[in-house]
Design a protein that fits this description.
Layout: H1 2-20, H2 29-36, E1 41-46, H3 55-64, E2 70-73, H4 76-82, E3 88-93, E4 96-97, E5 105-106
Parallel strand pairs: 1-2
Antiparallel strand pairs: 1-3, 4-5
Length: 109
Amino acid sequence: MLFPLLFPLLLSTASATETDSAPPRLGDLKAAEAFIDSAEVVVVGFFESEESRGYKELLDSTKRVTTVPAAICMEKEVWAELGVSSDTIAIFRKVRCIPGDAGAARPFG
């Protein structure tokens, strides 16, 4: 008897969790820069539309890999500022500068 009462609640919770896991949309350069700077490693999908090649795969990946933040950017102005020219998925990783290296960054250091 309790099952019919709790089943709709369970369904609504499951669907809310699925939509909540959608990656954020980066609408301007300030939002993109803040997101890129928000963690040690982040993934940003730059797509012209939701039908672009790789879009659905990125969404599926973000549901399975929750330890790396991911976002989507469809704003061409942001693409230009970040040097993106076509649909792509980019991984951004912070680098540390080593003192004495005249500011040279070591990507895996």
